[in-house]
Structures are given as C-alpha cells and as structure tokens.
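Below is how a single chain appears once it has passed through the pipeline. First comes the sequence as given, then the structure the pipeline wrote out for it. We keep one example in the README because the format questions we get most often are answered faster by looking than by reading.
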Amino acid sequence: MLKTEDYATAVREISGVKISVTRYKIGDRYYCHVANLDPGATIARAEAASRDEAEQAALAKAANRLGTNRAAAPGEKGLSSTAR
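Resulting structure:
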C-alpha cells in the first residue's frame, strides 16, 4: 500500500487572498493542493514528477484563477509556513 510522504503545509498570500498550500508525495508522484483559507475552497491542484514542479504548477493555476499572474515566492514579506 502506498503511503503519503514529504507532507508539508504553508500559508501564503496571492493578490491579498490568504491561501494554504499543501504538498505531499504518494509513490513516485508529487501533489500540491492550493485552497482559500476562508472558506476553505480548493483553488487549484497539480501533480508532477518533482515537488517543485507540482507546487509551481498549482501556484500558477491559483494565481491565474485569483486574477494575478504572479504568486508570492516563499520567504517574501508576509508569508509564513508550517511543516508537518
């Protein structure tokens, strides 16, 4: 049975909207889920061969859906993260 590995969550902001970014690995694939913190609705999901590819793809989709072409990068002012 496959197990979830490399699980992490982060709170970020795109265009003034606070989002949660959850990423994890199942088998040899990485997944990323971006959701609005309030009300908790899914904004975007992505799957890729690497963690960074999955996260970049999900953040790009989220930025597009939220009306901006740029997602804040990790470490920029106003961002916090929590790894589990």
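Confidence is low (pLDDT under 50) at residues 75-84.

See the next section for the split statistics.
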